[in-house]
Amino acid sequence: MTQPRSTVSRRRGPSSLDGELACPQLGGTTVDRVQRQNKLGQGIRPKGEATRQNLMQATLHLLTDQSPLALSVHGIAREAGTSPATFYVYFKSVREVILALVETLREPYLRDVLPTVQTTWQGVNEVRAFVLEYFTFWDRHRRLLAVRNLEADLGDEEFIRYRVDMSLPVVDALADRILDAPSHQAKARSKAWAEAVVCCAALEEMFSYPPEAYSAFKSPATPQDVVEAQISVICGLLGSER
Length: 242
Fold this sequence. Notes:
Blueprint: H1 46-63, H2 73-80, H3 84-90, H4 94-103, H5 106-112, H6 114-118, H7 124-153, H8 157-180, H9 189-207, H10 211-216, H11 223-238
Helix pairs in contact: 1-2, 1-4, 2-3, 7-8, 7-11, 8-9, 9-11
């Protein structure tokens, strides 16, 4: 199946990640994409790829409890047990290492979340499987996803492109499920697609809050209550009973 691609230009706008001191906050992820050349134009051998991945993992580790703006090339290099000079062999800036990390999210998202919305939905069980997988993905990668969305919201076109390219397949598949509903057979695809966008935006927004946020603000709701609410909203959109 060919995945739709974004038409957003690769030229980026201003970013809060520009410069050595600008970098975002991320969560854990597996880094397995091999870059064929480093910044010196040399092919990256296994030892070099291990160094590159070590720098990415060091960035992720720092971002678990630091502000994006607090990160620096020197800090990442120190965390990775190497030098700033070595960092610049593989990345030209902190922003670039963040983009490399964001890029790693697309594969697990499409592997884990997309299949749950590509099947025929018979009722609430399928909706629940989709929402729970969406929640699990966000819970696992919340810090990195939050930075991606922040930079996209601030107008960085590369972060926008990564966000759109990753989201579109799930939005398209959810629009198909909406159109599958017996009461929606005559609905225009444009309307179903818009509804799918709103659903996915709501999922992202609500699942972007960490569990501790609910207790910190003495919320009467729990993360599980929010999951159940999202399931109810989608079931209502589909005309399904819970």
